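Lab meeting notes turned into a lecture example. A postdoc, R.K., suggested we walk through two folding results consecutively so the class can see how the record format repeats. The first protein's sequence and structure tokens come next.
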Amino acid sequence: MKTSMRPTIGRLDTLRDEIATLAAEHKAEGDTMRRLPTPLAEAFVRHDVYRLLLPHDLAGSAVDPLDYLQLIEDIARVDGSTAWCLAIGIGSGLYAGYLPPERSRKMFADPDCCIAGAYAPIGRGISVPGGYRVSGHWGWASGVDQARWMVFGFTVGESGRMNGLQALAPRETFRILDTWHTSGMRGTGSSEYEVENLFVPAGMTFQMFMGKPLHSAQIFRLPGAFFSAIVATVAVGIALGSIEALTELAAIKRGPAGRPSLRDQAFAQYSVAKAQALTESGGAYLRRSIADIWAAVGGGDEISLEQRTHARRASVHAAEASVEAVDLCCRAAGGHALLESHPFERAHRDAHAIMGQIVLQRVAMEDAGRARLGLPPLSPTF
């Protein structure tokens, strides 16, 4: 086993400071390369980030999920793409809880155990002795350049299983496609991938957020709503970074002769206050929803439909509020919002790109509304 620098809660500040510094230095490089820059990829492994949430018996650090969300928010203030890769990379460790522990221990024995891919069951599977033969084409594989493993979802048979299955297989098994040419979140490397007639052992399949975890650690009891909170937190951090940038710009931007400086303009004053209110309230609402779920898990209680509904609507609301906050900051910044030398244009691109994630689209809020009105949610991972 490789030696690693495994962070504990007391060392999260060191991890945060180094990654934030590197993100600031290399975010333009990430945009150009369309993936996580090498210095950041190496720092992720050096700080053993992919096992942060895992329990100690899986070589993890067992970091509290609320501390994890705070880490993501802090990095997103600096660069959305870096925060996204960090968020997805750490969160993907939760797949370990759905595999037989002996398999998980081998897969997560080293700190470079990154998983990329999409668990949506859009592949095709055929039952064969000992497992399945799977073919398919998937997308949104954030961090694929750092990954050792790919996750992929598929249905089985002509009619398919309604909820589908997920599986893990080595990255080299798949063909990685150069498809990540985007406006926002450019540095995440979220490309597409495909495979044909891959044999998947039955022991490597599971139903994420629907099946029962095979590991007893509390972290593996978190519902699908936790993933929604993870990606929404990136949007919250981006918005907070925009507010900081507007505050700094207002201190130095002077108006034309006879006109007030940016700091003295009523619209700038309104914008910074409104953006702060939107972001802080959305973030606090989101954090409280996850804290309630985590408290239920810690107390050995079942996670109620009401708690899941709370987290789902809080996630969409926090993301939408953050996008509105970014837009306000960009409008107030004026022409400076167009310049790559200022962070506004990147924040605008990234915040709007995040809303393309299906768990933050209107359908997710509609599902929360269905639950509030006494109707069953449509999402199987609600």
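The second example is placed directly after the first for contrast:
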Amino acid sequence: MNPLPAAFAQGWLMTAGLIVAIGAQNALVLRQGLARAHVGPVVLLCTLSDWLLIALGVFGLGAWIQSSPLALELFRFGGAAFLLLYGVRAGLRACRTPADTMVAGVGAGSLPATLGTTLALTYLNPHVYLDTVVLLGSVGAQQPGAARSAFALGAGLASLMWFATLGYGAAAASRLLQRPAAWRAIDAGVAAVMFAVALQLLVNPL
């Protein structure tokens, strides 16, 4: 029996199960989609970053991170600090007057600033490494021969499908969210996600 289709399906299913949870990175993609601002570049950057981390995990980096207490602590506290900062910014947007909130939602920052935030939320979030590099990597690294590449390809396809669906699906629905109060609710939700993930990182060792 050919092991490649089974490895491909396992990689796809594992990634689909891990990536759907609304975390810091997904919250950013969702907000950019709803704002219809820089959706393509953000989706592309998130997807390429996932592909890179999946490949690193499947082909060896995951085991090193898991065995290094110092690396885990650096990811933990550095990621928590950034998430708290981003959560405060989202909370401040949610507390603005309705007119100000609508302007913030439409403008959504310049492309370089948005991509910089996307990179930070991706690479400063320890959960990205734990899920993508350590967990997926440990399972993918156990695949024999070419099945390892098939696993990575399946995981990469799931990542591409998710980010494209999240970003462009939100963009398609953004016309329904013209009321300023909706943007305030979105930013409040984003802030809550950031604070929750940061608190989890600070309370629970990796």
